[in-house]
């Protein structure tokens, strides 16, 4: 006779960690008792593990999706890309490297996060890709409706 699970998963979702790290996923799982989050841990540009967080319903004060533009990143990316085209005359490898870093910096100029605020007003940001903002908003909307007892 199979054992009955203690908690039934209501829903779970995975998101791209960022625009440039499209191959790395963050996982959010909403269960009967809590919200579990698994996000990658990065050292500079290298993934070195995962961070596991868990929030009970009683501890969550607010959850939302927020996008912020970072003009410094955008202009730095433009500058690096321009510099890359100037460097192509001297070295193809360095020019390509600067162009890659410049485009990556431009892509990350708009950063989207799922923001969880707990009862003690501590704010925790979990970055997701800007391109998955609508998917994140749908996920957060589901969570908010579950927390408010609408489903």
Automatic annotation (TrEMBL):
The chain crosses the membrane at residues 91-110. Keywords: Membrane, Transmembrane, Transmembrane helix. This is Uncharacterized protein. It comes from Crassaminicella thermophila.
């Amino acid at each position: 006779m199979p054992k009955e699970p203690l908690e039934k998963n209501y829903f779970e979702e995975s998101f791209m960690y960022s625009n440039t790290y499209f191959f790395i996923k963050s996982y959010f799982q909403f269960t009967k008792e809590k919200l579990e989050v698994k996000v990658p841990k990065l050292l500079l540009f290298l993934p070195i593990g995962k961070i596991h967080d868990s929030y009970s319903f009683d501890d969550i004060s607010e959850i939302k999706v927020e996008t912020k533009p970072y003009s410094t990143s955008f202009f730095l990316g433009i500058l690096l890309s321009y510099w890359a085209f100037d460097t192509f005359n001297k070295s193809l490898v360095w020019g390509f490297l600067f162009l890659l870093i410049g485009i990556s910096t431009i892509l990350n100029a708009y950063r989207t996060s799922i923001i969880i605020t707990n009862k003690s007003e501590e704010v925790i940001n979990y970055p997701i890709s800007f391109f998955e903002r609508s998917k994140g908003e749908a996920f957060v909307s589901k969570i908010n409706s579950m927390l408010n007892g609408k489903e």
